[in-house]
Design a protein that fits this description.
235 residues; alpha+beta; Jelly Rolls; five-stranded antiparallel beta sheet; globular; manganese ion binding; RmlC-like cupin; signal; secreted; metal-binding
């Protein structure tokens, strides 16, 4: 009996020592970040002080839209200084007689400010937001220079330039990686059966493929009535 108790007591002490050894914090081995992009290094930085060290030049805090050859949007991907700021910005224009794709931003609210020109804006809030007729509410705004509208995160929206001159705008986003979802293109990427059932079988078979092929590939869709008014060619 004494032997059994001693053995039990000894095993208890050994187990306690093992658990204590496991509980002792071990220094975290630092890995090299040299193979990571600057944006990734900034995201992994422990403090804001370390992030500033990764951006040693004053020019790191300036973004030049005049040097952008592609879509003029500043995000953390092409302007690392935005990491952990929670914002992004775009300065661009909607060409004459054009409409932007119906789209949404899944991770950010957008503030859309018109600098020059004329924009007709439409935005669909979330389901359940109804108008006086108990139908889905659509918020329509007629923007002039100096005016701003808001597109909450996840809301469908589009802008139309109904005039013969380009409309210049600035758009700010509440995320440094806000993303864009194109409603028509992504909806019709689903299988035919899903699309047919979604539209109550009013679109089926060859009609679905016909619509897929008809969806414009350009972000700015031409507005036929405006082209006629302005005497402009479609292409």
């Amino acid at each position: 009996m004494i032997f059994s108790f001693s053995l039990y007591f000894g095993l208890t002490i050994i187990l306690a020592l093992v658990l204590q050894a496991r509980a002792v914090p071990h220094p975290v081995a630092k890995r090299s970040n040299s193979d990571l992009s600057l944006t990734a290094q900034l995201r992994l930085a422990d403090t804001a002080i370390e992030r500033y060290k990764l951006l040693p030049n004053d020019s790191d805090f300036v973004f030049n839209f005049t040097d952008i050859e592609q879509i003029p949007v500043a995000t953390s991907q092409n302007w690392p200084a935005l990491v952990d700021v929670g914002a992004a910005i775009s300065m661009s224009q909607l060409p004459a007689c054009s409409m932007s794709f119906l789209h949404l931003h899944p991770r950010a609210t957008e503030l859309f400010a018109l600098n020059s020109g004329h924009i007709l804006s439409e935005m669909v809030p979330q389901a359940g937001v109804l108008d006086s007729n108990n139908s889905q509410r659509v918020i329509r705004t007629n923007l002039r220079p100096g005016q701003v509208t808001i597109y909450p995160a996840g809301s469908f929206h589009t802008q139309v330039n109904p005039d013969c001159e380009p409309a210049n705008f600035t758009a700010a986003f509440t995320s440094d990686e806000f993303a864009v979802s194109l409603v028509a293109e992504q909806l019709f990427s689903l299988s035919d059966g899903v699309i047919a059932r979604t539209f109550g079988q009013s679109i089926t078979g060859d009609d679905i493929e016909k619509i897929r092929k008809a969806i414009p590939s350009d972000m700015a869709i031409k507005v036929e009535e405006c082209l006629t008014k302005c005497g402009m060619a479609k292409r």
